Amino acid sequence: MKYGHFDDQTREYVITRPDTPMPWINYIGCENYFGILSATAGGYSYYKDARLRRLTRGRYNNVPMDFGGRYIYVRDNASGAFFSPSWMPVRGKLDAYECRHGMGYSIISGKKDGIAASTRYFVPVGENLEIWDVTVTNERAAAADLSLFSVAEFCLWDAQDDATNFQRNFSTGEVEVVDEVIYHKTEYRERRNHFAFFASSEKLAGFDTQREAFLGPWRGWDDPKAVAEGKSSASIAHGWQPIASNHVKLSLKPGESRRIVFFLGYHENPKDQKFDPPGSQTVNKAGVLPTIAKFRDPKNVDAAFAALKVFWDGLLAKCQVSTPDIHTDRMVNVWNAYQCMATFNMSRSASTFESGIGRGLGFRDSNQDLLGFVHMVPERARQRILDLAATQFASGGAYHQYQPMTKKGNNDIGGGFNDDPHWLIIGVSQYLKETGDFSILDEAVPFDTTPGTEVPLYDHLKRSIQYALDNIGPHGLPLIGQADWNDCLNLNCFSDEPGQSFQCLKGKDGKRAESVFIGGLMVHSAKELSALAREHGRPADEEFYAGVARDMEEVVKKHGWDGEWFLRAYDDFGHKVGSKECDEGKIFIEPQGYCVIAGIGLGDGRARQALDSVKKYLATPHGIVLQQPAYSRYRIELGEISSYPPGYKENAGIFCHNNPWVIIGETILGNGDQAHDYYSRICPSAREEISDLHKNEPYVFSQMIAGRDAPTHGEAKNSWLTGTAAWTYYAATQWILGIRPEYRGLRVAPVIPKTWDGFTATRIYRGVTYDITVKRAGQGNRIALTVDGKTIDGSVVPPPPAGVKSVKVEAVLS
After folding, report:
1. Does pTM top 0.90 for this prediction?
2. Taking CA atoms, which of 40, 451, 693, 783 is between 20 and 30 Å from 94?
3. Which of 755, 788, 793, 792 minimizes the C-alpha distance to 773?
4. Which residue numbers delimit the Glycosyl hydrolase 94 catalytic domain (predicted)?
5. Of 113, 448, 459, 487, which is the active-site residue?
6. Could you give the domains of the chain?
7. Is residue 324 reached through a cis peptide bond, with omega within 30 degrees of 0 on the bond before it?
8. 208 catalytic, yes or no?
């Protein structure tokens, strides 16, 4: 069953039923101010850091779902009836409803008893505020006397503290109302430099800033006292729960519309700014008054929305394609690229499934995400790389996560995930291939964000490999540490005496458990560092890292091959994991895909055999499961992976993140049909018709789909913030479509389905626009290129002469 449809012309997903299986969200904001916004106006906002600078409150695991958000109430003053055009929170039956999720904005509309209201939510480019642009229309034959109420509930800044420390926070809330602007100044007494504000373009009939006054005793957001009675109480919050609510009265003639702009924002004064009078607790609002005046004028709101559209037009224009498959087109051209920008902004910190409290930005996550967004925002990708490298330790290891505001590593997570350092090399390599900016390698970057420890970024990359070389296990494979890419595969467990209970070394350095997956990853990263060293003019390093890759490849072949597929690991006892010798968990997806990406087994048939085993044992109609058979009971020697029920998450769920590794592997082996088939199985657009089963948004990829062992096989979880976004975009654009940036030019080497007669693409690469036409003349993958009318050898289009801004490429597959 479908709950909406794609509007490909406007680049919007149109939701026509509010009761979606899960909250179907969008993100507003693209720089420092961000918000989660559901199709029913739920979600929350924050500045830079979802934990440390939370503006509005979010409630998770709540029943009914998705309570708390950016609410508008429309009240008929004659009858006392009211409704929410977003359906939530009133949840009354609407005569019409629609939500249009677009690029950085959402428009939510509802109609009841002849009154229509539409709200356009967005964050202007360059501003630290969000706009609620409301239009109310009287479609009745008679005049209407209406009241419009807006409300947002403030969070007490640190979301973790807000959710737990009630004994303090019920006494700290403070607001100030000046010139009909509500200032949320909790913490101003301490920090004296930051606050939130809420204002309207219209003269107010009233306001509230205390939640209990607005809602009334023992009432909820679905039936607030202020709305039911049609009047606000001018409440001022002293402790307890500060909110911002505006009341605007409207008298509309038949057919008349009125527009009211509400806006919620954040402001931070310079830390050295003086206060007048000295010691005053009054908000120093001078710096924000021009912004408030600006957005009280609807003309400036329209200009800001137009600028937002131009912003997204520019980002998405970097890669546009037209193929025989509508799902490939809409994902590559719009939604997958858009999701990649969300993972750039959020990593894994704030979504319907991530509270914004438990994580900041992930080291492994953000490096992989570079694959999907570096071509859109290369200058911001550069800074992200430097921030990530600064959380690395002198050993070459790294904090697993860090907070985006402080840029400090999260000590409660720490390091010990032994795959992490390799992803820095892969992320930097992708940046260099895209931009040619080798100056980044000379940037001085500290270790553990500690001043005085700075070394060039290139040295950080070398230490990433050295960390792996310093952590080699009994078989010569890399030690897994606390875990590798699979955070739940925790193999460092032991028992002091036979028959005694096991103990896990979580957070400690295990010296026996080894990862075949990291072995494949190390081959890949060492090859990438060797190629980077060649381009950087370091021939000795080029040779050294090529040797590291060759040596590890031999180890993987010797100790990581199980006859039909690559082993997954060796546990702390030296037992094989992911082997035909195991009773459960015989074969895992990760090493099959990644060892092929690394080039292991391409010449001796192992690569083909490994991927054939994936198809035989792991592939399902809903995607490729992580392992088979599922673990039927908890096994402490394997850790968290076996704590999940069969078919969910890491225990034989379809972990969509690593499906693209197999997709890429199939293209490397020349099998475009299989590659695109696997792509289509997890593609959200292609799954739209089964939304009742899939549950998550049909316009963005999910982290996980329940596997064949699960009672809910095909049900998705953890949408938006997942490495699936970058990896599927990378697999589709650079391997299936084959448009791949390299150090010395743009490679055009498609591996497409045999049923496709070709495709066209526009790719902006290093400031040059490449117009690419691919035509099929045979069923193979051999490529012949013509560049600006001239035939060239190979499949790499060299850079054009200086000053040339467009190149025409014609490719023929045979």
Report:
1. yes
2. 693
3. 788
4. 311-738
5. 487
6. 4-313 (2.70.98.40), 739-813 (2.60.420.10)
7. no
8. no
